[in-house]
Amino acid sequence: MNRFPRGFSMLIYKMKFIEKLQKKFYLYLFKELAYILCLALGILTFILIMSKMGRIADLVINKGVDLKDIILLIIYSSPPFLTFTLPMAFLLATIVVLGRLSTENEILALKASGIDLKCLFYPIVAVGMVITVVGLINTNILLPKSGELFRTTLLNIVKKGISVDDKEGVFNDTISGVVIYIDKVDTNNKSLSGIVVSDDRDKDVKQTISADKGFINFDPASLDLYFVLEKGSLHRWEKANDIYRNLSFKNYSFSINLANMLPSNVPLRKRPYEMDIKELRHALLSANPSDKYDLLLEIYKKFSIPVSSLAFIFLTIPLGIRRKIEGKFSGIIYSLILFIFYYILMAFTENIGKAMHLPAILTSCIPNIIIISIGLNLLKQLNSEEYTGISRKLKYLWGYYLEKVK
Q1: The pTM is what?
Q2: Is residue 1 part of a domain?
Q3: Residue 167 falls within a domain, yes or no?
């Protein structure tokens, strides 16, 4: 004899069925999010990296850079972009996946099975926390190290390109406007003999320097190529005044700065966002009062920007499941619009914070607070069947505005 009423047994069976359905749905949602997330992250990061590598491409094409160095440059230049592409890819993946589930009526099937749509939070929050942790590691560890490694690799590429102390009997023109010829190279003593340097960098002055021996040294800190020459002569023609000068020397030294061989967007020193927290705090001690706020803001942004992934969850879930009739690519469009809105909001609050002397920690958190507030308002009717497309709402608001103007 059954100890439980039939209705109670059916209730237990239904609860077990719903629990099993939820687990399968969580696994399915994890797979979909991971696929779209990785795809979006790769595409967005690649686009941003390629848009900044014009001068590097020139080094690759004209200077014969090794494939290994190219790959290292791409890897080391990724962390600054990952700071923004990580939350952006998560935002895009969430809206696209939930929008597809809604379009194919899978969200409706969950409702019909008696599942509260707030269960969507569990897998999405789990993925969001992973993205946040990766973002924190990126901004606090990878970004400071990658900036230094990027500069070091780029300097090594430049140094390889202008290396003249290992080439005998070759006219080396890797430096723009300068041709260097070396007859003999003594690798043991690192000395050179039979040196000729033709310098046409100044269009009004042409000079040629020749020396019996000497050596060349490269300073990676200042990007100066130093020439120390012995027993030679200098021939100089000043074209403007048509004056020719000739002198002999026993010892002569000069330098050529090679900063123009580096990409213009790669400074020799670390920028504030490339510093770790310890370096930023050290910079605060000697910074001007006007710069201290920016440095403090950089410290807090190393946490607030990665945490934006969690803030977007409150906004992406209601937008994703309500996107039924907006079109296949509307999820991508909404994601880009939302992230642009967040970026503008971040820039706006920074300016307001500086003008009103708000605490730096509050200024860095305001964009996330606003995003969470908007999301919580949309979450109030998460399980509601009433739906109005976002484009329809905008059309309604525009029509209402035109009516009032008339």
Answers
A1: 0.69
A2: no
A3: no
- Residues whose CB is less than 8 angstroms from the CB of residue 121 and which lie 6 or more positions away in sequence, other chains included: 313, 317
- Sheet hosting strand 178-186, strand order edge to edge: 171-172, 178-186, 191-199, 205-219, 224-238, 243-257
**195 and 63 in a common domain:** no
Structural domain of residue 183, as residue ranges? 176-257
Q: Is 106 inside a domain boundary?
A: yes
Please report, for the chain, how many H helices and E strands are present, in that order.
12, 6
In tens, the pLDDT along 245-286 reads 888 888 888 887 776 666 555 555 678 888 888 888 888 888
Q: What is the DSSP letter of 16?
A: H
Distances 202 to 211, 237, 239, 262 between C-alpha atoms, Å: 21, 11, 10, 20
Examine residue 265 and state whether it is found in any structural domain, yes or no: no
Q: Which of 3-12, 168-177, 359-368: highest mean pLDDT?
A: 359-368
Residue 68 has pLDDT above 70, yes or no: yes
- 33, 94 contact by CB (below 8 A): yes
- How far is C-alpha 310 from the geometric centre of its chain's CA atoms? 19
Q: Can you tell me the distance from the alpha carbon of 34 to that of 102, in angstroms, rounded to the nearest whole number?
A: 18
Higher-pLDDT residue of 97 and 366 is 366
Residues in Cβ contact with 327 at an 8 Å cutoff, skipping those fewer than 6 apart: none
Q: DSSP states of 189-217 as a string? A: TTEEEEEEEEE--STTEEEEEEEEEEEEE
Total residues belonging to the chain: 406
The predicted structure's pLDDT at residue 382:
60
User: Does 211 share its domain with 293?
Assistant: no
